[in-house]
Amino acid sequence: MALTSHERIMRIFQNKEIDRPALKLWGLGIHTARLLHPAYKPVAELAAKITDLFCDSGFGFNMDVGQNADRYLETYTTETNSPDWVDRHMVYHTSKGDLHSIKRLSTKGEPGYIMEYMIKEPEDIDKLLSMEFAPVTVNANKYNELVAQVGDRGVAMIAIGHAGYAVQELMGSETLAYFSIDERERLSNLIRLYSERLLAHTKAILDLGIKEPIFRWVGPEVYLPPLMGVDDFKEFVHDMDKPICDAVHNAGGYVWVHSHNKVAKFIDSFIDMGVDVLNPLEPPKNGDIDLNDIIAKYGNRIGWEGNIEIQEIIQASPERLRSLIDECVEAGNKSGRFILCPSTGYMEIPQPTEQYINNLMLYLRYGLEAVERCAK
Q1: How far apart are CA 281 and CA 289, in angstroms?
Q2: Does pTM surpass 0.90?
């Protein structure tokens, strides 16, 4: 059996027999010229040739106000005391008062920082909900262009938001934790409303008639321990996300979900809500996934993606990295639904070290060798 990358990826989502595990470099798009640093060029070029491509296409959805952003939202930038940083201000002018957030952005490609969250007090939720929401008009033009560009080299995935994650981004983890106890009904109602908006948006995309669409989102990680508990995850993630998964499946589509954190005790919930492929399956210490143990328990009931920590690619010796790849592929291959992948995007360090670039190249070359040893 010899499959194209497109066929291999789709059959992993469909739980059908594959020729070998897939190989992914997370963060690689169809346009390899978009580089955070020139040192990434050989990595991007090699990955574009030998990996199975997972490319994203979005449909431009604002969960707060939908198509009414121009009506309520003001954005502006101010200087800081350093030329390396600027502050981006976002202000919603609502009938009940302004909501203001500040994000500090690097002028040199470094990660940004939230300096002030939009929602600080329970009454701010009332301000947020005082704005009129208008559904966004969708069309498949950009998605279809991406599908044509990717061809047999991989798949185009439809990137949508996550209701719970969108709420966390409005208030931050500390306020979210307080609200989950002191303002639980208010919080739950807000997440539910966002989930309903997202479901309607998803159905609008599905109504375009896209064949076998793959929807992807990130965010469940912020509702896992230690910040949240089992009951929180069920209410704020499982119960909110399941209707969206059901709608996607009923239309012949599939669901890919990214969730950092310790997910081993929540695999049943991810399966029940309808996740077809779960990423990034972090091993200890960041996560709790022993790939051999988890696949022995669940087999092919869900697709498995990841299990290589980005810290290992940044810091490990070549010998250790090869050993980790061997262990992951050997364990993952037993499921028949495995995608070898780092735990985050490869191009998130503005000034990569020589060791990191060399290890990325090793991950690609040796990763391909490892998955090809499983070929049927």
Answers
A1: 6
A2: yes
